[in-house]
Amino acid sequence: MTITTRMKSLAFGTSLGLFATLGAANAQETIKLGLSIPLSGAGAIWGKGSEFMCKKAAQEIAQAGGVKVEGKTYNFECLAYDNKYNAAEGTRVAQTLLNRDGVKFIAGSLGTAPVQALQSLSERQGVVMFTTAWGSSIKGPKFPLTFTQMNTAFEIIPPLIRYIHGLHPEAKSVAMLNPNDATGRETEGVSKKVWTDTGVKILSSDFYERGTTEFQPIAARIASLKPEVVDLASLPPADAGVVLRELDVLGWKGVKVIAVGTGVDGLKATGGNAIEGVYMGAAVIFDGPTATSQQKAINDEARGVLGESLNSIQIGFYDSVYAIKAAMEKAQSIDPKKVGAVLADVSFTSFYGNKVDFYGTGTYGARQQMRLPVSISQVQDGKLVEKSRIVPEGN
């Protein structure tokens, strides 16, 4: 982090701290919201933006008068710890949040492996947990206190691949690459099925270890297969950019896909011009006609702190705070089990500007998934352009 960025981050934190102090005079209690997120490594930008958005929502709620439950007013405080995107650190963070800090609400958790570690404690201890994790194994009737705050592989990948296949029917082969962890493996399973169902031949499906810095051998193997599509489904921006750059050096030309592609800035930092034409399924466009003035203002503030625009992962940490507020006020309780019992029945105004409820019975057997729009975008002339927006249906 540069000195300038650090100073901006501190300034933002100071302003939030000052506001929280002023708000405390009018609020009887503060409710801690835990965050298990990567704050170092290739996924750090996702984690830092997630913390920013949790604090932003908490600030707005306090400014609007707080959470009203049984005649009392509550404010939120966001506590973030670095899970380093792995199970071991995820376990440490889970123990810190739940056992040391006494957190009863997780406003967001990122990474399937660390989330599984957290969930093993949260469900047992009666803690409500929101997560961005893509794995279907963490949802369903067995996990009544777990809810998803962003679109996952099951919501993004089918419409994304079908859209791309419709534009490029001549592309008959694909090479896939994912991180070698729970997120990557579950994503690979979804992508493989959809590509196969569309009649595209899978030439390879490889995995790499998070923390890898040398991608030339991986890119060389992919290029040697001469695929017409390369699908970097769940790679974080820094890694995906390097792979695309190496493929470009090797002369590979084809259709580029990043299902969890969340924005152009981080991708361009490592990929340069090689990112041109990439299709993404998790990015958010802030300079298009669908962006509201509030979204643009918050995004501009985030860019000043983070150095890049917000994405759907980070926005989920804003929406989850409002979902928790709505459920507390509906239940008229701050007991996590009572709040969790009504969460599936609430609706709230999302950062996207529309009312959001919960669905997912058909996919997960329970309404634990926020009904969020799926935005399909493409890098054109170095900028993201929204190509299609789909609002999921069903229960």
Automatic annotation (TrEMBL):
For this UniProt record, the keywords arranged alphabetically read as follows:
Amino-acid transport, Signal, Transport
| InterPro entries in UniProt | BCAA_transport (IPR051010), Leu-bd (IPR028081), Peripla_BP_I (IPR028082)
TM helices/strands, residue ranges: none
Q: Name one Pfam family in it.
A: Peripla_BP_6
Highest taxon in the source lineage: Bacteria
Against CDD domains, the record matches this protein to:
PBP1_ABC_ligand_binding-like (cd06336)
Residue ranges of the Leucine-binding protein domain? 30-382
Transport: is it a keyword of this entry?
Answer: yes
Which N-terminal stretch is annotated as signal sequence?
1-27
What is the phylogenetic placement of the source species in the record?
A: Bacteria, Pseudomonadati, Pseudomonadota, Alphaproteobacteria, Hyphomicrobiales
Q: Which organism is it from?
A: Bosea lathyri
Q: Which family does it belong to?
A: Belongs to the leucine-binding protein family.
| GO BP terms in the entry | amino acid transport
Does Transport count among this protein's keywords?
Answer: yes
| Name listed for the protein in its UniProt record | Amino acid/amide ABC transporter substrate-binding protein, HAAT family
